[in-house]
Amino acid sequence: MPHTEPDFEEFAARYGRQLYQALVPVGGLDPAHDATTDTLVYAWQHWDRVRHLDNPEGYLYVMARRRLSRLRPPRAALLPVAERHELPEVEPQLIDALNQLSEMQRQVVYLVEGFGWG
What we know:
- It is a single chain.
- About 65% of the residues lie in helices and about 0% in strands.
- By secondary structure, it is mainly α.
- α1 (about 5-25) packs antiparallel against α2, α1 crosses α4 and α2 packs across α4 (about 55-70).
- It starts with 5 loop residues before the first helix and ends with a helix.
């Protein structure tokens, strides 16, 4: 039976944003949003069980990645190549270098450098 306990609401508010941020670089904006929403709905419906897991965030992340793989074609989400004048002050070869990384490596760089997850 679903619950609307404050602990789920706090968890969803905190973790939902993190989950979305983790999924965007590998799936794109809309699929990441859909996978995040579906995963949080599942967590809400099964909160009595999910909240007692040793690592609910990790469990839900794996679920969201599986959902994401069904929402998008199996291809890397490459970064767009921007014109030089559109880029902030960064290494000119940065986008090409990031596109040479595996999907997982790009995601790690995005989360560590972009959001300070480290």
